[in-house]
Amino acid sequence: MPGADKNTDLSERIEAFLADLKRGGTGAGPLRGSAETARETTALLRRITAQARWSSAGDLMEIIRKEGRRMTAAQPSETTVGNMVRRVLKIIREEYARSRGSSEETDQQESLHKLLTSGGLSEENFRQHFPTLKANVIEAINELLTELEGTTYNIAMQALEHIHSNEVIMTIGRSRTVEDFLKDAARKRKFHVIVAECAPFCQGHKMATSLSQAEIETTVIPDAAIFAVMSRVNKVIIGTQTVLANGGLRAVNGTHTLALAAKHHSTPLIVCAPMFKLSPQVPYFPFSPSHSYEQRSVTHSLWWVRREILSKVNVYCPVFDYVPPELITLFISNIGGNAPSYIYRLMSELYHPEDHEL
Amino acid sequence: QDEGGLVEYFRTQMGKDPDMASAVAAIRTLLEFLKRDQGETLFGLRESLTSATDCLTGVDSSVAVSSAGELFLRFISLTSLEHQDLSQCKKVMEERGELFLQKISMSRAKVAKLCHTFIKDGAKILTHSYSRVVLRVLEKAAAEKKRFSVYVTESQPDAAGEQMAAALRKLDVPVTVVLDAAVGAVVEKVDLVIVGAEGVVESGGIINKIGTYQMAVCSKAHNKLFYVVAESFKFVRLYPLNQQDVPDKFKYKADTLRSSQSLSEEHPVIDYTPPSLITLLFTDLGVLTPSAVSDELIKLYL
């Protein structure tokens, strides 16, 4: 029966995606960039909307929330998955409100104003059925996909405003967004880039190779030299894994050091982050080790240590750092430049408060 | 006209439930006043409500009562825009007023639900004076089986800190009372600081019991997290730039304002903490950064 085939096909794809996510985390599978993850998640959600069986917006939101929870549980550190789920949930809410013809789509946030003027404990349960809802939601998701495809280009387009000739830029590790940003500026300006290698996986080396292939003068420095070199740097431009709700970052290990060194020398710290990295999470215990979620195995890089010593040694290798918002000067995203204190506003536009907790 | 009766009602409300915020009692009193009001025009209604609020601030000069009064006045204006006929308008106002009261009596529970997850197991918390919202948050954390210990300042001149310590001991939370002067010395031992607020100003700063500013400066110097818990009806349209900008009518108790000869010889009971020293604000509208507070106020008043 065609219905059953569609269902099994859909669940197969979801399972394949979940397995891929899990593998990507342990470093065994192909390491995908977050842009790809975002695109694939959104494409999967569009498929769920098209193929799953639902009659009202409430049902669809329940299905998406359930799948979203499974996806975030598969790989908790990949926050883009959860962010895309929340974007799609907001899309569904907006399309539903538009179908109902109500003008209160903008007023969905809790606010003092709403507290004072609401006439009753309105429980919006999204139960009404609209035949055009499916098509509208799918079209909106397609728009979201187009937006996702254009993000790196939109960010790179702003490069010329921020990078001037003969400047010394510092960055850390490897970020595809920053790579494209710098390469775009290099078309018209001559500047120098210093890359901190970001031990122990030394992603900075790949970044430096790629930048020098684009004819940019690049220097690689060890992480310990960051502070020493900082006095000669004009700007620090970094990427990040997640932008948190308070304007802070969860970025690759070593970024906090870089940010503190930049603050000490009053060097501007610019973060290039597309909007899909913005997450409604607020860091609970920002500076405690448990916050970095995962640690990676580094025994392969300690090959030079004698075996009998290695078994007695505890190696601590967190993957992410928390960078507080006070150390950041500017966020450059596909919608323009913003101060960290403005992040809460961008978040309220992207996600609905009830979706913060999937 | 009925000032005595109003004050009586307010005092009874406060006495009936000592756990209720003074702003909630003020709104309840104003709602009662609205029900009893015999005026024929909207303008007259607003005038009598303004004088009623003044009367209440004469009893309890805290920022919270004043902000509650302004909020209620705003509530009246917004509702009256929708209905032209005054008697129908009044009926709608009474219904919505009851609903509003219901909602804000749940605010503290919402705040506690948001904030208790930020207290980790084994945390050492510093707090100031007696705040019912902070107490609620700590109750919730204790109920979730989290182990934590609390340092609370004595908070003179009324030793309210002792009241807080007694309440915490009932919850089996290890608590130490410290001198107000000992804050600087104690801050290095704690993991985070949680305080309540009597008022949250437009810039995202807070007005709270005297000694809060000191605590905030010390915690900034030691890079400690400084959290504020407050319900949303405490948001007030003030924008002080320093301590001097806070109006005298809030700084001193109502009796002191009436009876004293020269205010410069009196001790202020509140101070202003600027937003740069605050990490996060927990309100029933969500977890806010100080910059988000003015957004909320604009949404209401404009």
TrEMBL record, chain A:
InterPro entries: eIF2B_beta_subunit, IF-2B-related, IF_2B-like_C, NagB/RpiA_transferase-like. GO terms for molecular function: guanyl-nucleotide exchange factor activity; translation initiation factor activity. It is found in: Cytoplasm, Cytosol. Gene3D superfamilies: Translation initiation factor eif-2b, domain 2. Keywords: Cytoplasm, Initiation factor, Protein biosynthesis. It holds the Pfam family IF-2B. The keyword Transferase does not apply. One of its GO terms (biological process) is animal organ development. GO terms for cellular component: cytosol; eukaryotic translation initiation factor 2B complex. Component of the translation initiation factor 2B (eIF2B) complex which is a heterodecamer of two sets of five different subunits: alpha, beta, gamma, delta and epsilon. Subunits alpha, beta and delta comprise a regulatory subcomplex and subunits epsilon and gamma comprise a catalytic subcomplex. Within the complex, the hexameric regulatory complex resides at the center, with the two heterodimeric catalytic subcomplexes bound on opposite sides. PANTHER family: TRANSLATION INITIATION FACTOR EIF-2B SUBUNIT BETA. Acts as a component of the translation initiation factor 2B (eIF2B) complex, which catalyzes the exchange of GDP for GTP on eukaryotic initiation factor 2 (eIF2) gamma subunit. Its guanine nucleotide exchange factor activity is repressed when bound to eIF2 complex phosphorylated on the alpha subunit, thereby limiting the amount of methionyl-initiator methionine tRNA available to the ribosome and consequently global translation is repressed. Belongs to the eIF-2B alpha/beta/delta subunits family. This is Translation initiation factor eIF2B subunit beta. The lineage of its organism: Eukaryota, Metazoa, Chordata, Craniata, Vertebrata.
From TrEMBL, chain B:
PANTHER family: TRANSLATION INITIATION FACTOR EIF-2B SUBUNIT ALPHA. InterPro entries: eIF2B_alpha/beta/delta (IPR051501), elF-2B_alpha_N (IPR042528), IF-2B-related (IPR000649), IF_2B-like_C (IPR042529), NagB/RpiA_transferase-like (IPR037171). It is found in: Cytoplasm, Cytosol. Acts as a component of the translation initiation factor 2B (eIF2B) complex, which catalyzes the exchange of GDP for GTP on eukaryotic initiation factor 2 (eIF2) gamma subunit. Its guanine nucleotide exchange factor activity is repressed when bound to eIF2 complex phosphorylated on the alpha subunit, thereby limiting the amount of methionyl-initiator methionine tRNA available to the ribosome and consequently global translation is repressed. Gene3D superfamilies: Translation initiation factor eif-2b, domain 2 (3.40.50.10470), Translation initiation factor eIF-2B, N-terminal domain (1.20.120.1070). Its main location: cytoplasm. Keywords: Cytoplasm, Initiation factor, Protein biosynthesis. The gene is EIF2B1. It comes from the Eukaryota. One of its GO terms (cellular component) is eukaryotic translation initiation factor 2B complex. Belongs to the eIF-2B alpha/beta/delta subunits family. Pfam families: IF-2B. This is Translation initiation factor eIF2B subunit alpha. The keyword Lyase does not apply. The keyword Protein biosynthesis applies. One of its GO terms (molecular function) is guanyl-nucleotide exchange factor activity. Component of the translation initiation factor 2B (eIF2B) complex which is a heterodecamer of two sets of five different subunits: alpha, beta, gamma, delta and epsilon. Subunits alpha, beta and delta comprise a regulatory subcomplex and subunits epsilon and gamma comprise a catalytic subcomplex. Within the complex, the hexameric regulatory complex resides at the center, with the two heterodimeric catalytic subcomplexes bound on opposite sides.
